[in-house]
Each structure stands twice: as C-alpha cells, then as structure tokens.
Amino acid sequence: MTDRTRKLIDRLEKEHSLSEAEYAELIINRDAEAAKLLAEKAAAAREAVFGNAVYTRGLIEISSICRNNCLYCGIRRDNTEAERYRLTEEQILACADEGYLLGFRTFVLQGGEDPYFTDEVLCSLVRKLKERHPDCAVTLSMGERSKESYQALYDAGTDRYLLRHETADAGHYARLHPPEMSFENRMRCLRELKEIGYQTGCGFMVGSPFQTPETLAKDLKFIETFRPAMCGIGPFIPHRNTPFRDEKAGTLELTLFLLSVIRLILPEVLLPATTALGTIHPQGREMGIRAGANVVMPNLSPVGVRKKYELYDNKICTGEESAQCRGCLEKRIESVGCCLAVDRGDAPRWTRQ
Ligand code: SAM
Ligand code: FES
C-alpha cells in the first residue's frame, strides 16, 4: 500500500468523504494490505454504531413475473425458459407467520414488476401483515412505481423500500437496461421514496458489464450524497438465459473492498452481506460481515418456488426450509463474533413522518 492510499483511507475514516477522482484512485490502486486496513476500520465503525449486532430480514420472493427486461436479470421478460410463479396472499401471510415464530421482525417482500400487484392488492397485503404482526417492519422491493403508488404503500404501513440504483452513471445504466427503461426514472423513484419518508435503500452490482473504477466512483459519490438508510451491493453473476451469459462475474475481493468503503462513508447504513456474495464463495457472507456489513436476509419463500426466483446461475439457499436457513445464518454470524439481533433493526434515529 502506498502512503497516498493510506492517507486516503485515513481521510475517508475521519471525513466520510473523498472526491470522485479520489474514490477512483482508491479503487485502482487497491491491494490486499489496503483492503485489510479498510476492513479493520469498517468493522470498528460498524461496532461503534451497532455493537456486535447483525440484523436479519426474512426475504419473501413474492413473484417471478416481470414486465421489465434488464439485460443482467434471470427473470427478465424475454427469458422464456424462466419458470414463472406468483404467491397468493395466503401463501405470503403464511411465510410471514412462520418467519415470526422463527424470530424475524422485518419482512422483505421482493418480486419482479408483476402487473398483478396493483396498489390495491399490495396495500391490502401490507395492511394484513401489519395487523397480524404490528411489531414488525415491512420492506417492499417491487421496482419502479409512481409517486402516488409509493405514497399509498407508505400510508398502508410500509416502512422501507429497496430499489437499487444499479449504477450512478447514465451511460452505464443505458448499457445494462433496454431503451424503455431510464436512469432518470430510477433516480426519480429513489428521490420520491426518500421524500415520502421511507427508509430507502439503493445499491448496485459489483462487476456488472461495462463497470469501471470511474463508474464505481460515481456510485460511491451518489451513496455519499443520497445518504440511503440501506445499501445493497453484491457481485454480478451471469445467468445462462440472458444477453450477459458470457460476461464475467464480479469478484469477492472487490465486493468486500467496496463494502468497507461504504461503511466508512456512512457508518450508520444498514449494509447486507448478500446471497450473491454467498453464491460466489462459500464463506462470502461471513467475509462480508468482517468487511463491515451488518444485515443478512435469509430466505422465507416456500421451498417449492425458490429455484424459480433465479436471478443468476447457481443461487444458494434454494433447497433449505426457512428454519434451516435461519439456523445456518445464525451459526455463520456467530462464527465471526457477531450475534443475530431479533428487533426490527431500523436505521438509527429513524422516525415515521
Ligand atoms: N424488481 C425489483 C427491482 O427492480 O428492484 C426487485 C427485484 S430485482 C431482481 C433485485 C435486484 O437483483 C436488482 O436490483 C439487481 O441488482 C439484482 N440482480 C439481478 N440480476 C442479477 C445478477 N445476474 N447478478 C446479481 N444480481 C442481480
Ligand atoms: Fe424484472 Fe429482473 S428484470 S426483476
């Protein structure tokens, strides 16, 4: 590690900010020694805010039907090989009930942009979830919607919304998405979610096709200025039935490095060690926690549909029962000196407007 890199890391730790050019420089000149120093500082920053608690969210993948055609995504509209499913309201509520007994106090409902899930359907679902489990947080990750729709879902009781920005570079965004999708609309959604009062999550794939240190520097600057409550990053992994089938996957090394950088930019951010990270390395999620992550999202979806929510090849945790998934993650978290928290795990100092 050069003196210059050490200085940049020290400044990032103290000021939680670098210029875009400096973020790019840090990425370009990174080495194992720099990654180790960053990870130590990131783990200390996390501990100062959260102690040794790692938050857990029960993920329910409610539909694999999607009207979008993102070039990287295994459940894109044009993948005619994908097996499509949609959970019924009863199935979703049953998953949550089971999750509640297992100790989950946040449910994340994620799915493709399935037109069946109108505001009416989703609002009624959120209300029922909240009635049955008033001590739980509900997070939605259902893609791009109108401001009115986001407002209605918030009014129905939704606490958080996850919408990865995917890349903060408009040119890069255009190479990852079909022409009918726009960077401006993605950013509009994120801005409005935050304005409405959601704990909002952005994020991106590490190593997506055409990504460069410069586009990553823009991602980091965006995260620094947008100040999301949550930030989801995980490696891009190719899916065999997408236009990016022959592209290389993102690396463990760069993902861990960026997790540490993001922790130092936003010490209070809720930062998951993602399933994609666990897919590219058997201990990927543990390493993610060591690098500064503090959230894990075990799968609560019915075992029968898990393989069908196939965003990328070889996705893990598709065979286990919910209880096994939770137990397995609990052991993994404890193996790195942390413990699974059982409360809602809101963003620090968050209050509903
Ligand atoms: N439809 C919602 C949306 O667009 O936000 C939620 C579902 S979408 C599948 C969730 C995330 O999966 C995306 O934001 C993307 O970053 C990630 N993803 C999709 N394909 C992936 C791939 N091949 N490798 C890694 N992550 C992928
Ligand atoms: Fe819609 Fe991936 S293209 S969820």
The ordered string of helix (H) and strand (E) elements is: HHHEEHEHEHEHHEHEHHHEHHE
Dominant shape: globular
Main sheet summary: 6 strands, parallel
Structural class: alpha/beta
- β-sheet strand percentage: 5-15%
User: What is the alpha-carbon Rg in Å?
Assistant: 19 Å
Query: For this entry, what is the oligomeric state of its chains?
Result: single chain
Strand order of the largest sheet: 2-3-4-5-6-7
Fraction in helix: 40-55%
Average pLDDT, rounded to a whole number, is 97
Number of helices: 14
- End-to-end C-alpha gap: 46 Å
Spans of at least 5 consecutive residues whose pLDDT stays below 50 are none
Number of strands: 9
What small-molecule ligands were found? S-adenosylmethionine, FE2/S2 (inorganic) cluster
Index terms:
3-stranded parallel beta sheet; 6-stranded parallel beta sheet; 353 residues; alpha/beta; binds S-adenosylmethionine; 12% strand; binds FE2/S2 (inorganic) cluster; single chain; 9 strands
